[in-house]
């Protein structure tokens, strides 16, 4: 895991981690969430999701930043957390992240486990359904 400095903000679902914003979607996605998640990468939004608890985080420098927040503050299990992103230039969700390599039976950055891939894509498409309109 990535070690870092964490700061508290007034909004409970927005976390500043090493100067990179990680937004945990606790209700519905809003424009402020997307703006915060895009502060560091203008054409790509990192997406990290616990496919068991159905919690989605966006933003951060690394998927490991969101993973640490999900495990530490939302009591998620790392084995249930997968990473990917949203490519703004082609309006497409992707399933590629370094944290995916550590998963059992997934020796790739790509989510190659068919069940996990399906659950990840369905979850992020559902939670982030309004993402394109906020870009």
Write the layout of secondary structure elements.
Layout: E1 6-7, E2 14-17, E3 20-25, H1 31-37, E4 44-50, E5 55-59, H2 63-74, E6 81-87, E7 92-94, H3 114-127
Antiparallel strand pairs: 1-2, 2-3, 3-5, 4-5, 4-6, 6-7
Q: What can you see in these coordinates?
A:
The protein has 135 residues and is of the alpha+beta class. The protein has one domain. The protein is built from 3 helices and 7 strands, in the order βββαββαββα. A 7-stranded antiparallel sheet has the order 1-2-3-5-4-6-7, with helices on both faces. The termini are far apart.
Instruction: Please state the oligomeric state of the protein chains shown.
Output: single chain
Overall pLDDT: 87
Strand order of the largest sheet: 1-2-3-5-4-6-7
Domains (count):
1
Q: Report the principal-axis shape.
A: globular
Total number of strands: 7
**What is the number of helices?**
3
């Amino acid at each position: 895991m990535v070690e870092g400095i964490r700061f508290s903000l007034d909004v409970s679902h927005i976390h500043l981690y090493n100067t990179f914003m990680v937004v945990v979607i606790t209700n519905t996605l809003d424009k402020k969430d997307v703006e915060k998640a895009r502060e560091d990468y203008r054409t790509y939004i990192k997406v990290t999701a616990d496919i068991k608890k159905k919690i989605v985080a966006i933003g951060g420098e690394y998927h490991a930043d969101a993973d640490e927040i999900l495990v530490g503050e939302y009591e998620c299990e790392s084995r249930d957390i997968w990473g990917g992103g949203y490519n703004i230039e082609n309006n497409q969700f992707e399933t590629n992240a370094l944290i995916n390599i550590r998963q059992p039976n997934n020796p790739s950055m790509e989510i190659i486990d068919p069940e996990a891939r399906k659950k990840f894509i369905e979850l992020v498409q559902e939670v982030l359904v309004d993402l394109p309109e906020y870009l």
